[in-house]
């Protein structure tokens, strides 16, 4: 039996050092933690409870939704709408913002989330996750609007993800570094197991969906080719490759042992007028906050993601993140192009 620090104790201790803290933020994080525990249980039971497979619906990106995309979205809404901490929510799976029902008090925070990340893996029992980010509403007391969510990543006050893998973990930043917690199923508590996670500046491991190679832009083609050329090439060292197709699992690997993850822009997307594959508010910004807090870098290819001014709720952007020196090398290749 361990006597580790629970995530609630950790958050409360951290908030003790925040001037003017009211407890709202702690309580909001606790509701998010509860939602992830419910989702962990749902994902773990999978076919036993009939939650695998596709739903007969599409999200605003035109992707066929999985049953679990919809069920996990519901869990997040129900767990977070009632307590009076939120002004509104926005989800990858909802076309418009979710306004807090009038029967509940409205609060000062905004929550954005990707309820199930790595959906294409759920039916094949590969790790999936949940990604979230917390902002403070900037506007007045009126009803929140989509515009309230269009804040740069630097405005985030917290970000995190849950990883439903061999064990269920939660990784969190509130702007004071990055900490990882493992769910002890026996007591139903997330316990601090990975304090102060940091990303090594150098790595010999990259992750990209190589099936898109012919559509990539020259800087990415050059970077990946040099990795593949290994010892015989300009890098003079062999590189390893990974692709799980769950962003949460890729980022967790990078937080644990370094690496670089790339979902770059490509000509196929450009032809469709698409700005990238991954969503700025639900995936790119929260993961960039976590990666930067762990000493890594996160860019579109040409600029820092967290400096981007969002233009729309479901905007997609290119994402290149991970070990700082590799990310800077890729930025340099784009500058030279
Ligand atoms: O299917 P691909 O091209 O390998 O893309 C995988 C990427 O798409 C995603 O699954 C998109 O996220 P969702 O599953 O939340 O839609 C990422 O997690 C992952 O990195
Ligand atoms: Mg996702
Ligand atoms: Mg998703």
Automatic annotation (TrEMBL):
Major place of residence: cytoplasm
Keyword annotations of the record: Carbohydrate metabolism, Cytoplasm, Hydrolase, Magnesium, Metal-binding
Entry binding sites for substrate: 117-120, 209, 277
Binding site residues for Mg(2+) 1: 92, 114, 116
Named cofactor requirement(s): Mg(2+)
Catalytic activity: beta-D-fructose 1,6-bisphosphate + H2O = beta-D-fructose 6-phosphate + phosphate
Keyword Kinase part of the UniProt annotation: no
Domain of life where this protein originates: Bacteria
GO molecular function, one term: fructose 1,6-bisphosphate 1-phosphatase activity
Annotated metabolic or biological route of this protein: Carbohydrate biosynthesis; Calvin cycle
GO biological process assignments: fructose 1,6-bisphosphate metabolic process; fructose 6-phosphate metabolic process; fructose metabolic process; gluconeogenesis; sucrose biosynthetic process
Transmembrane segments: none
Cellular localization per UniProt: Cytoplasm
Top EC category: hydrolase
Pfam families for this protein: FBPase, FBPase_C
Keyword Magnesium set for record: yes
Cofactor note: Binds 2 magnesium ions per subunit.
UniProt binding sites for Mg(2+) 2: 114, 117, 283
Domain Fructose-1-6-bisphosphatase class I N-terminal span(s) in chain numbering: 6-195
Gene Ontology cellular component annotations, sorted alphabetically: cytosol
Enzyme Commission identifier(s): 3.1.3.11
The Fructose-1-6-bisphosphatase class 1 C-terminal domain, residue ranges: 199-333
InterPro entries hit by this protein: FBPase_C_dom, FBPase_class-1, FBPase_N, FBPtase, Fructose_bisphosphatase_AS
Family note: Belongs to the FBPase class 1 family.
Subunit and interaction comment: Homotetramer.
Protein name: Fructose-1,6-bisphosphatase class 1
């Amino acid at each position: 039996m361990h006597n580790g620090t629970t995530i609630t104790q950790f958050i409360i201790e951290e908030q003790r050092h925040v001037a003017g803290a009211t407890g709202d933020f702690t309580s909001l994080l606790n509701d998010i933690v509860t939602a992830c525990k419910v989702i962990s249980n749902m994902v773990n039971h999978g076919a036993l409870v009939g939650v695998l497979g596709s739903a007969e619906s599409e999200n605003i990106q035109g992707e066929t939704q999985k049953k679990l995309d919809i069920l996990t979205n519901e869990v997040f809404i129900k767990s977070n709408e009632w307590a009076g901490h939120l002004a509104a929510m926005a989800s990858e799976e909802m076309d418009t913002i979710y306004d807090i029902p009038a029967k509940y008090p409205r609060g000062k925070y905004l929550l954005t989330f990707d309820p199930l990340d790595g959906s294409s893996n759920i039916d094949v029992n590969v790790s999936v996750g949940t990604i979230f980010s917390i902002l403070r509403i900037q506007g007045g007391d009126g009803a929140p609007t989509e515009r309230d969510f269009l804040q740069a990543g630097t405005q985030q006050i917290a970000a995190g993800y849950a990883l439903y893998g061999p064990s269920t973990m939660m990784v969190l930043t509130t702007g004071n570094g990055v900490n990882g917690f493992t769910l002890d199923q026996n007591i139903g508590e997330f316990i601090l197991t990975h304090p102060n996670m940091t990303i090594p500046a150098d790595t010999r491991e990259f992750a990209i969906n190589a099936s898109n190679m012919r559509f990539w832009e020259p800087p990415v083609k050059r970077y990946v080719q040099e990795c593949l050329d290994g010892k015989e090439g300009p890098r003079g060292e062999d590189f390893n490759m990974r692709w799980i197709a769950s962003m949460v699992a890729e980022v967790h690997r990078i937080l644990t042992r370094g690496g670089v993850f790339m979902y770059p822009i490509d000509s196929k997307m450009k032809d469709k007028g698409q700005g990238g594959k991954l969503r700025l508010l639900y995936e790119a910004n929260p993961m960039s906050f976590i990666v930067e807090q762990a000493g890594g870098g996160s860019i579109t290819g040409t600029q820092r993601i967290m400096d981007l001014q969002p233009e729309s709720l479901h905007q997609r952007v290119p994402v290149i993140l991970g070990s700082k020196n590799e990310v800077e090398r890729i930025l340099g290749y784009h500058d030279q192009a």
